[in-house]
Each structure stands twice: as C-alpha cells, then as structure tokens.
Design brief:
503 residues, elongated, four-stranded antiparallel beta sheet
C-alpha cells in the first residue's frame, strides 16, 4: 500500500468513519423509535379487539351455563321433549347473532335438542367450542351435555382488516386461520384469548406501511450520508496529496533511477524543513551508490570465481583419493554442459551444472582407502560402503544456501540413480531423477569407461557405444543418449582436448 493511500485512509479514518457511525446511529435510533411506536399502536388496537372477543366469549359461556341450569332442561329427565328446549336454543342463537348451533345431547351422545332442528337424533359433532354438562334439578344426576359449535369465522366480526393490516388466528400447533394474505415483510403483535388459550389473536401489518414515514425521509438521509462522505473523501485526497507531494517526487526519482540505473539524477526541492533535509540526504546517497555498486559487483564476481575454483578443487580432491586424474572432473564438467545445452537448458543453467558436476564424487573423501582403492572387485560389504559415497556427498553439501553448492548436492546425491529405478541411494526412476543427476550420470560413466584406472584399462569406443545403446531407457535417460550420439564428435573432441597424458 502506497504512502499516499495510507495518508488518505488516515484522514478518512479520522473524519469519515466517525461521521458515518454517527449518521448510522441516528438512523438506527429513528428506525427503532418508529418500530416501537408502530408496535405500541398495534398492541393498543389488538388489546381492544381481544378484550371485546373475551367479553363476548365470557357472555356466551355464561349464557350456556344459565341454559344448562334452567328448569327447561328437566324435560330431558321427564322425556317431555316437545321442542321447547330446541326453541330456547334457537332463540338464544338469534339473540347472540352468532354463526353456529347449540346442541343438547343425552348421556349416549345423541342429540335430543338443537337450534338446528335437522340435527335432532344424530350424534353430536366433534370438537365443540364450548361444552357444559347438564344435571337434573330433580335427581342431581348428569342427564346430558350442552355444546356449542362455534366456527372461528365469528371472530371476523371483531376484526377491522385492511389491505395493509389484518388479524388472523394462530393455534398452538402453528396452524393459522382467517388470514387474508401473507405479507412479504411485516411486523406483528399477538395476544392469547383468556377463555380459549389454544387460540392466539395476531395483528399483522405490512412493514412498508409501518415504516412509511421512515421511507419518506430515508432517501434524503442516504443522500446526505453519501454527500458528506464524498465531500470528506475529496478533502482528504487533496490534503493528503498536498502534504505528501514532496515524498512522491522523491519516490518517482528513486523509481526512475532504479529503472534506468542512472545514478547522476538529483532531486530538487526548495524546502528548508525535514523534507528538504531528506532530499539533500537522498542526493548524497545517490552520489555514492554508483561507486559502491561497482565495488560490490567486482567483489561478487571475485567471490563467485573463488567459489567455482573451490568447488572444482574439492571435486578434484575427491577424484584424486580414488586414484583418478584431475582431468576426469574437467571432462565430466564439459560433457555435462554440452548435454545440458542440447537438452534445452538455458546457458546459465548449463554453466551451473558444469561448475557443479566436479563435485559428483565428493563423498568419496569419507570412504576408507582400503575400499576406495581396492584393485579388484568389491565384496558385498565393500560395495555397501562404497555406495554410501552418494549420500555422504549430499550430506556434506545440502546445508549450503549457495545456488552452486545446492546444485552440487543434487549431482552428488543422484548421479548413481538409474532411469529404470535400479540405481542408488534412493532407487529413483525416470524424471523423478533431477536432470542434473541424469546428465552427470551419463557424463561420468562415459569418461570413466573411456579412461585408464589403476584397477582397469580404458574400454574401446565401440564397446562403450554398444553399452550406451543397451542401457538407453535402463541406466540412462533415452533423450540424453540420443543427444550423445547425435553430437558424438563434440564429445570425442572434449575427451581429446582434456586427455590424460599419464597416471
């Protein structure tokens, strides 16, 4: 993040964030007050409606209780049913102006009187709204049950619904009744009936209506918020730009110097403050950087050359312990570079493997002379000891952070791996073997077979070529074998150029 952006953000944090928070707090406070006001008004209206319903139901229940205890009910006991009870029930229904019917059933559940004469003789309907037992005034025995079937549509008489606000019933099981519609977004209040606790009356209002006043001013609120934010942001941008313009000038000059590597450029700031002192120090620093960079470049080149000489010398030491000539590592290095270039590695990486390949047998310095220089074939234990030189060489080099020594560690570790997985120390196969290891393996074997040693004579070229063809895809990478034969004359020229003249 740039210094300019950080400065602008600092101004915004100091001014815009408190402004925005204050505006949001005011908006939320206004919204909450409006919600509480709307809810309070709805609760008041709901309370009035529920109170009327409760009074109505209480009256209804009292009337039924009075009917159940009236002398006319003795007609059940005397079995003098001349429809007087039914007429009384019908009269009560008419007086109360309700939808529904009263039923008087005997102890067997058969209707013996009803405000609906057609139901006499039938079984009482299920789930009456109210049900009151009837006892004989003569024997005090229960002689029947007075029930009221009271459809919930009766409650509609107490509801004053509109398109944006309506009442409905909510049961304990979550079912609803008398709900005209379902609002997408609404606020609601509710209250349970006293005489019928399984029914709750809900008053629901479309939120758009409840928040009508808020929506009316909300657009202006948002515009004010955005306008203030834009003004603060613009002010912060210009103030920050003015304050840090000298820093931007310094930064642009530094970028130009970095891009062009021209250390003669200077910064001109006519200021007598800390920024002016910074510009003077910057110019002084630039004046000395070119000289310092030249010295560093020369020193790095010297270090790299020394490093290459050390690597080559260490590789030569490893070879000399096994009675091999110093020219062996030179030839392996040249072979490796040639293979790398034809394989498609860039010139820098090809040079890297050339410098690293002399270290391929550095692990031999840790192998006992009795094993290392044995003229005959190794027994099983001697072969096991000898084969550890790859891992030993890797352990010597792996801890370095130098690119060259890292490459040398790979070469030392993997130059005895084989394409088909039968090599050592890890039994890698195919392209799991690093290309450095595959290249050095071919270069090392080619030179070793073609050179005299204390324990063997050099092979003839045809014998070497036959072996390489046989080991294509087994010991060696097939592509590298093809490169070797396609450019055989160049490999033979390297061998001749660095030929050993004596052991």
């Amino acid at each position: 993040m740039s210094f300019k952006l950080k400065t602008i953000l600092l101004f915004l944090a100091i001014s815009l964030i408190p402004y925005a928070l204050t505006m949001f707090m005011l908006g939320n406070s206004f919204r909450q007050e409006l919600y509480e006001s709307a809810t309070q008004e709805m609760n008041t209206q709901l309370g009035m409606s529920v109170e009327r319903i409760n009074q109505h139901l209480h009256t209804l229940h009292n009337d039924m209780d009075f009917l159940a205890k009236s002398d006319i009910m003795n007609d059940i006991y005397t079995k003098d049913l001349d429809r007087r009870i039914s007429n009384s029930l019908l009269s009560k229904k008419t007086d109360l102006k309700i939808t529904g019917d009263f039923y008087l059933s005997d102890t067997k559940g058969v209707i013996v009187a009803s405000s609906d004469f057609t139901m006499i003789g039938k079984e009482t309907p299920q789930n009456p709204f109210f049900s009151i037992p009837v006892f004989s005034n003569i024997s005090s025995d229960k002689v029947g049950t007075l029930s009221l079937i009271y459809p919930v549509t009766n409650f509609s008489n107490f509801f004053s619904n509109t398109a944006d606000r309506h009442y409905y019933l909510l049961y304990l099981d979550g079912q609803t009744a008398l709900r005209p519609s379902v609002f997408t977004d609404s606020i609601e209040v509710s209250k349970t009936l006293e005489s019928t606790p399984n029914i709750t009356i809900v008053l629901e209002e479309e939120k758009a209506l409840a928040y009508k006043l808020l929506y009316k001013y909300e657009l202006w609120f948002v515009l004010l918020l955005l306008g203030g934010g834009i003004f603060i942001s613009i002010a912060a941008y210009y103030i920050a730009t003015y304050l840090i313009q000298p820093i931007i000038t310094l930064s642009n000059t530094a970028k130009k110097i970095t891009h062009t590597q021209d250390y003669t450029q200077q910064v001109t700031l006519n200021r007598h403050d800390e920024i002016g002192e910074l510009a003077f120090s910057f110019n002084t620093m630039i004046n000395g950087m070119d000289h310092a960079l030249h010295e560093i470049t020369d020193l790095n080149e010297e270090i790299e050359e020394t490093q290459r000489e050390v690597v080559f010398t260490m590789g030569s030491i490893g070879e000399s312990r096994s009675k091999e000539t110093g020219n062996h590592v030179k030839r392996v290095a040249e072979y490796s570079k040639l293979l790398a270039l034809y394989y498609g590695l860039d010139s820098g990486e090809a040079e890297m493997i050339k410098q690293a390949s002399p270290m391929h047998d550095i692990g031999k310095v840790a192998i006992p002379d009795a094993v290392l220089n044995k003229p005959g074939r190794f027994d099983e234990e001697e072969r096991r000891i000898m084969d550890t030189h790859a891992a030993l060489g890797y352990e010597m080099l792996k801890h370095s952070n130098r690119t060259l020594l890292q490459a040398a560690a790979i070469v030392a570790y993997e130059h005895h791996e084989k394409w088909d997985g039968s090599g050592y120390p890890r039994g890698l196969s195919g392209e799991a073997i690093h290309i450095y290891g595959r290249i050095t393996a071919l270069a090392d074997v080619f030179d070793a077979l073609g050179s005299d040693r204390v324990y063997k004579k050099a092979w003839e070229d045809e014998r070497i070529f036959t072996l390489f063809k046989e080991e294509r895809g087994r010991h060696f990478d097939p592509q590298l074998i093809d490169i070797f034969f396609d450019h055989l004359e160049e490999f033979l020229l390297i061998r001749e150029t660095f030929r050993d003249h004596c052991l």
